Amino acid sequence: FAALRDFETGGHLERMAHYARLIAKHLQHDCALTDEYIEHLYLFAPLHDIGKIGIPDSILLKPGPLTPAERAVMETHVNKGVVVLQRLIGDFQLDQLPDAEVMVNVVAAHHECLDGSGYPNRLFGDAIPLEARIIAVADVLDALTSHRPYKDPWPLQDAIAELKRLVAACKLDHRCVDAIEAHVEEVMAIRDRFDDTLLAAGDQRSPQQKAPAVRRGLSGSAELSPDSELQPQAVPINRWQELAEPQEWTQQQPGRGGSCERCARASLPYRGWRGSARQPRCSAHDPGNPGSTG
Asked: Does the pLDDT value for residue 133 go beyond 90?
């Protein structure tokens, strides 16, 4: 869906999703966040502005400041996005999807402010879900540090100073901003890895020239890898499309399963989503698949 309209670059969606995961990892212990929550937040982050598919181009793509009337129209993108998600959840019976509420909150509340001055519902303080607070900081950070038709990118330290100013003004959650400040090197690595110019042109540099990439496991540890491959990313929205497929299983015949994609153990027979590219997994890595054998 995000690719249907030119309202955000693929680089923006990738960067802010990675920033959101970085913040959530930093908060994992203090806020008792599960690994599943963090990864779902990462997957759902690119949906935050999905409602902009319903905003007229004359407003959405306007290079200059919006008038008050245009701003009012632009702000309707939040409710439009919620309607889109609710329709998808209903049509594809996703209401039982783990963290489905998180997906809706990402869209519905990422423009709310702690002092109640945000939109659309003027939520105040703790009424704003944590996932929406995380997305808000990730989104503002990328907006400040990225090129726009009307501005040059800000240096990262200037952007962090602005985030702190917004914390002091009771707009943003200080814990989320503290997470950014605590992981400056990883933020710079994400920014450089998903640079819009590189993604648009394709990365032809040698591994030695490529920006460091962030590798992160379930333990939460992060490692900067100078030699990591940088691949131009596909439309980020595709990362969650499998979640929206009709829940129809197909039983594969013995001999067609192969080995588990994670540990190479036998997985015969196995079940997979009809029409999906999902690879076989053994019972240890796909406990919901009764056809798997360890």
From this structure: yes
